[in-house]
């Protein structure tokens, strides 16, 4: 099994990052503006990408300002069964985010594309948290 892992530091408190990752407002600025999101454990969040597919993530764990864990239940076949986690650690008003997408069956071309796009996701998250505007899917030119 393969994992994707990234780290990003954001110059805001963990509460700001947590809110961005658990609300429709935040995720629409960071990832895609076509979504249905609920911040309750067991709920299925739906993310649409301009007619290029639907991704459904079950919310498996929420620890306020510390951890978010999703399980992919529907998407590209390579994503189904992967687990996505965001671990947050605040120190001196800055938050370190450890991102993981775990349990890939193999390192494939799609894995490599997703690895790149998760880095863009984290950059978008940083932009949104620090400057109020992210780079969601529908605004990307790359």
From TrEMBL:
This is SRPBCC domain-containing protein. Gene3D superfamilies: 3.30.530.20. It comes from the Bacteria. Belongs to the AHA1 family. SUPFAM superfamilies: Bet v1-like. Residues 11-129 form the Activator of Hsp90 ATPase homologue 1/2-like C-terminal domain. Pfam families: AHSA1. InterPro entries: ASHA1/2-like_C (IPR013538), START-like_dom_sf (IPR023393).
